[in-house]
Amino acid sequence: MKYTQEQIVNYLKNYGFVFQSSEIYNGLANAWDYGPLGVLLKQNIKNLWWNEFVTKQSNVVGLDSSIILNPTVWKASGHLSNFSDPLIDCKKCKSRFRADKLIEQNVKNANVGDNTPFEELERTIKDNNIKCPNCGGTDWTGIRKFNLMFKTFQGVTEDTTSTLYLRPETAQGIFINFMNVQRSLRMKVPFGIGQIGKAFRNEITPGNFIFRTREFEQMELEYFCVPSESEKDFEFWLSNIQNFLFDTLKLSKDNIRMYEHPKDDLSHYSKRTVDFEFNFPHGFGELWGIANRTDFDLKSHMEVSKANLMYLDPKTNEKYIPYVIEPSVGVERLLYAIICNFYEVEQLEKDTREVLRLPIVLAPYKAAVLPLTNKLNDQAKEVLDVLLKESISCTFDTSGSIGKRYRRQDAIGTPFCITFDFDSIENKDVTIRYRDSMKQERIKISELSNFIKNYEQ
Asked: What's the whole-model pTM score?
């Protein structure tokens, strides 16, 4: 069953995953804070990505570049001239919209993309008599470019000489450090540089909860390769993304589809782009993209900076600018997809229960220790301490009946509930309850850590 965005938002707020930012001041539009469980889930997602795309790869290393870069970086990358959306205003109510999204929402099978000329967008809006979603008017301004980068200033003056930008992507920080990484670690092409970090985009029409926001976190890999082998490397990373989505995260294949961008809808830097789209509550939307960026980025930075970013191949003694394969995914979009994929309101014989059927590697808490009564709190905490010392993320819950506590842990995705009762004192065992099946069995306290660590779903 597919749940509405409102149901998902309410669920995530009620259980401490995601809160409206600045809520006590009536909030800030399209800004979100991540609560205790949201932080744990995000960290698990990032750890899994890093492990699969960096740690397990013999020729991939990490980087943590600045959020604020020399502004010339954005001139060289094309962001100052090309990183923009087509903005259109309603003359009646002064509301602003992205023209391409306005068309997609009102025209079936609309063929619009990043490279669609403004004249064609304006003609489509006029021919289809598209109305303003806010007031119903049809009197539109012409379309103009709206740059998506957030400006800021350094020093005490606010003028063009002190203008800086918050990075709209993490990729450029990798490109400008290509030679530093290659030389310092003596890396040989092909090799990759991975980075997880914040990015900022002044979106005209953010929305659909955390699907599109102005502040977000990216998990990005730039894989530098021999130009003639770029297609082979593209397929390698395409396969890795599929394995991560379906085998590691265990997302349903029914919820994901692949979209290959046609040649006339590729970004100016791309030779090939494939998107993995997820069926969110608002419909299919881009979850994860992979692009063959060719040598565009390194070549552009070479031209503007005059730095030598050529690679000398020790095998062939040939100098060339490597091509780049870029798999890029947003942490928040992936979190949203995971929640939508695993959240369920399950119908039982007498009632219903909310359950989040997360794989154990994603679960914020792997186990919950539940003393049967408050008289057993001290002894039960000894079990909790054993698990925490083994670096097993756990929670301790004494509030309400044991049945209500089971339901609460089901709803936040905790795979195991461990009930400490009076028999536990003498027998040195506990009852372990499985989230998905709700079955229960006794297990020795001394075996708990290994059981949870080695459990396979």
From this structure: 0.91
